[in-house]
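re the bet — no i am not wrong, look at it urself. input seq straight from the record:
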Amino acid sequence: MTNKKLWGGRFQAESSSIMERIGESISFDQSLYKVDIQGSKIHAKNLLNIGILSEEEYQKIILGLEQIQKEIENNEFEFTPKLEDIHMHIEYRLTQIIGETGKKLHTARSRNDQIALDVRLYVRESISLICKKLFDLLEILLTKAEQSIDIIMPGYTHLQVAQPIRASHYLLSYFWTFVRDYNQFLFTFSVNDSFVLGSGALAGVNYKINRELMQKELNFSKLSENSMDAVSQRDHILNFLFAGSLLLMHFSRLCEEIILFSSVEFGFISLPDSLTTGSSIMPQKKNPDIAELIRGKSARLFANLQHVFVLLKGLPLAYNRDLQEDKIPLFDANEQIQISIEGISEVIKNFSFHPQKMQASLKKGFATATDLADYLVFQHKVPFREAHELVGSLVGLAVQKGKTLFDLTYEERASISPFFATEEYFTAISLENSADKKDVFGGTAKNRQLEQIQVAKKTLTNLHKIWETT
């Protein structure tokens, strides 16, 4: 391996050890090898079209690039910090394989626009995989919601039992959340979808390359309008990290509920053994580690987003070497996003509801007290403030007796108001009836849940069509 840098023509001394160690990026950007080769093939074709390469030279370069890709994928490629980054590794190895012709490949491009293209190709591929996994998650949620439509569970405000809802309503609330996350990644795809090669170091290049042709061959929807902007801005990375942070924040909230609801104190759900772990000292433990780990990964996404914001905030135009550091948070975020989607999908698919525990919590929390007040208003024309006070007194009596609204005797109910001493009383406090009274679009009534499921199915169909045309 030579110590001569591909950019070292004007230098008399070799780089110091610290310069090589602090300047290398091959330890992390080697994962860009496939998109770097993809971009180099298109660039070589463009060089052929403008007469820089002969047909024979072009074919040599293509075959050489394909050999390099096989070597990397077969773990036969030598990486060294002396060659700094993935671009120089590929160019150096290409010259080893095909000789002097390999040195022609870098004509009419800079590492500045080369890495800008590579990252956009990487982000595009990452979003494709993320959207595929998110779509699968949405289908899993929708299936689970359909299966859970007849289960009544507590809805909470302030983490206190508030009103009865259908379990499908709870699951669909996350369905619509993740639909917005999916759309956020689609927006990021559009921000990223700009072909930047041909921008050179910052001012464009001195060759009459056909940027439009390369753009079409790599399936970008538009050309970057300004070469300085193309090589120095990282809005597409920030958008990717924001979309990922938003998604992981939503995952974290769901995981917090999974952790709470699977505890002994709640007992609303249980996770299968395959998604839990035990304790090294306490044999009874069944820990929801998968939810805790995903909850923890949200912190990594937030830090990655902040990393790039701080990195960019003081940089003058155009390219600065600081920007080498943008890929570490990007690569990490992509990995964490994808594994978290897979984890959440498995949790949703495999956890089980325990309806009896949820109904007991609803009764203990007096979840239908508001329905009872409304019953007094509708059936007995009691002013709402008076109805509110009567029901409050009844709840107070139940608490004093250690009972629920369902357990109070006829005499106990009658002692507060004769309106509570009727058979209609039990209809008024029914958990299922309470849910079905919320008969508005987007509500938890069963007919509205069936309606919402149909809307969700149409949304999935539309998302699929949008992605097919993206």
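see?? The chain has three domains: 17-107, 112-360, 369-429. told u. also Residues 113 and 257 are 45 Å apart (CA to CA). so pay up
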